[in-house]
Specification:
The protein is an alpha/beta fold. It folds into two domains: 223 residues, Rossmann fold; 97 residues, 3-Layer(aba) Sandwich (Rossmann fold). Strand 4, helix 5 and strand 5 form a beta-alpha-beta unit. The protein starts with 5 loop residues before the first helix and ends with a helix. Bound molecules: pyridoxal-5'-phosphate.
Length: 351
């Protein structure tokens, strides 16, 4: 049978109500790419795989949860969805809502959303509203408005988002035929780490696939789970994880503890260095937030706190590099201009 998306493939394992009517863009089924060059660079002697979630239909893992949340809403004839977003949730909600013939409203923090994400939300037809405040302010507002009006909230506090996002853990176990030893991933609002941990635990109960240790990584300027308190003005180039008060923070800490893993912080320069390294060593270009998991892995290996030797490590790369091209081009030297003459080209290439 041809692939029909995550609800068709794994719906029987998800806690979603019977009225759910699938709205899919054939999300999921993303590649698990072995990254030998990068593993070698980090000291070698371990197997490293990239779960390339940037290859989902709207360019981020959010599509796995969004197909579940929008399908549930569509099945009970909801007409409008709303979310607060640092960008990727907005694009995903807008795309799935359009596919279902529903209206989408997205609230974004003013001026802090990467170009490719804003463009996506607009292209898919969302009503985009900028809030003169942070993501956390926007989230508070969508919770309030959905408590008052019949509009469906599709942020990851919607339980069906978590159900859909568990499917990535299932896919990893299906491909590796067990859970990896370590899973590293970026942590923002903490829905994804919650979903992975729930997914791995469920598969382990069903199929004895084992459990990974989970390394969650926040950006140093937006690291409430590392600091132990909310961050009033979170700041980081990794805009997808620029969140000071994670909605599922408690569950993230629980996942780290239960798995005998941890949550750490990586600086913006460590994140951007890893973004470049991954692109240059493996040909995989991800947006900055998506490199945070790997940046954290590199920090832990370098400091001797994580011995990866002989282990299987999966790094979740959550969103595509094309979402945020400005971060690459803003500091780059303009490519040289030469006349259309062979000798000029030879001089430049051969010196
Ligand atoms: C949403 C997002 C994250 C953070 O996921 P949470 O579930 O909020 O922790 C990380 N990276 C990218 C690219 C995202 O879009």
């Amino acid at each position: 049978m041809t692939y029909q998306g995550v609800l068709s493939k794994y719906g029987h394992l998800l806690d979603i109500p019977p009225h759910t009517r699938p709205v899919t863009l054939l999300e999921g089924n993303t590649p698990l790419i072995q990254a030998d060059n990068l593993s070698h660079h980090l000291g070698g002697e371990f197997e490293l795989f990239i779960k390339y979630e940037g290859l989902n239909p709207t360019g981020s893992f959010k599509d796995r949860g969004m197909t579940a949340a929008v399908s549930e809403a569509f099945g009970r004839n909801a007409t409008t969805v709303i979310c607060a977003s640092t960008g990727n949730t907005a694009a995903s909600a807008a795309a799935y809502a359009s596919r279902a013939g529903m209206k989408s409203i997205v609230l974004i923090p003013q001026g802090k959303v990467a170009a490719g994400k804003l463009a996506g939300a607009i292209a898919y037809g969302a009503q985009v509203i900028q809030i003169d405040g942070s993501f956390d302010d926007a989230l508070t507002m969508v919770v309030e408005i959905t408590n008052k009006h019949p509009i469906c909230l599709v942020n990851s506090i919607n339980p069906f988002r978590i159900e859909g996002q568990k499917t990535s853990a299932f896919e990893i176990c299906d491909v590796l035929e067990s859970a990896p030893d370590w899973l590293c991933l970026p942590v923002g609002n903490a829905g994804n780490i919650t979903a992975y941990w729930a997914g791995f635990k469920q598969y382990n109960q069903l199929k004895s696939t084992g459990l990974p240790q989970v390394l969650g990584v926040q950006a140093a300027g937006a690291a409430p789970l590392v600091l132990g308190h909310a961050v009033e003005n979170p700041e980081t180039v990794a805009t997808a994880i620029r969140i000071g008060k994670p909605a599922r923070g408690e569950q993230a800490l629980q996942a780290a503890e239960e798995s005998k893993g941890r949550i750490i912080a990586a600086s913006d320069s460590q994140i951007l260095d890893m973004q470049k390294l991954l692109a240059r060593l493996e040909g995989i270009w991800v947006e900055p937030a998506s490199a945070a998991g790997l940046a954290g892995l590199a920090i832990e290996i370098a400091s001797g706190k994580l011995n990866a030797k002989g282990k299987r490590v999966v790094a979740v790369c959550t969103g595509h590099g094309l979402k945020d091209p400005d971060i690459i081009t803003k500091d780059m030297a303009k490519p040289r201009i030469v006349p259309p003459k062979l000798d000029a080209l030879e001089e430049i290439i051969l010196g």
